Amino acid sequence: MKYKLICIDMDGTLLNDDKVISEENKLVLKEAHDKGVHISVCTGRLFTSARNFSEMIGVKTPIIASNGAYIREKDEEKVIYKKILPKETCRKIYEIMRNFDVYKFFNTFDIVASEGDFPDWYTYTRFNEGLSEEQKVKLEVYSDFDDFIESQDEMLKFVAVSKDIEELNKARKALSVLDDIEIVSSAPLNFEINAKGVSKGDAAEQLAKIYGLDRNEVICIGDSGNDLSMIKYAGLGIAMGNAEDGIKLNADYITDTNNNDGVAKAIRKFVLLDE
Prior knowledge:
By secondary structure, the protein is α/β, with parallel strands linked by helices. 32% of the residues lie in helices and 23% in strands. It holds the Pfam family Hydrolase_3. GO terms for molecular function: magnesium ion binding; phosphatase activity.
C-alpha cells in the first residue's frame, strides 16, 4: 500500500457544515485504519476539542492541534511534540493587538482565555453544551491578558476574530513587525498566530518521521489557509470541493465537498482503491 498516513483537517473537511462526522466518513476511516494506515486529525482547534471529535471516529488517532503546535495521542497523556509561544512573544502580540477593536483569544491545549465576555456565537461556547466537565474546553474571561500571560508556560496560539475585515487586516499588518510568529487564517473572519515554524505541514512531517515514513507515503486533506502547508508537504495533497481557491490551486487532487463525504471518496479512490 503506497499511502500509510492520512492527515485530515476537521472544520470544512472531515466535519460537515452541521459539525458532524458522517457515517460514511467514519466507515471509510475505519477501513483504512484496519488496513494499517495511520489516521491523524489535524486542526486549528484546541486538543480538548479535537479529542472529542477524534473519539467519534472510533480508531486510534494521534491529534495535531493548534495548527501543528501540539501533537498528542488521543488516549494518552504523552505529548508527542509541542512548540509554544514564549511569554515575551505573547506580550508583544498583546501590546499590538490592544489597539484594535477585534475579539482576542489566547489558547493553551485546553483553555481559551478571552478579553471580555465570550460572544454567544463563539465556537467553544456552543461546543461545550451537553458535555461533561472533562470534555469541555475551559473558557476563562480576563479584563486584560497580562495576568493570563504571566500564569501560563505553554501558550500555543493567539486568535483574532472580527466581522470588520478592514480592522482585521489592519491588525494583521501591524503584526508584521514581529519576526518570531506565523500567521494563518482558518476562516474568512479570523487570523491565528503561532510560534515561528509552526504549521500543519511541519506537524505532518514530524508525525511521518515518528512513523518512519517518507512524504510520498502521506496524504493530507484540507480546505482553508491553515491547511496550505500540509497540502504542499504531502505526497498527495487533496483539496475539498468547498476549499478556498488557493488550496485547490496547490492540491494534487480535488475531491467532493465536506457535505458530500469528500474525505471518504478521496480515501476510497487513493487508499482503498475503489473504482
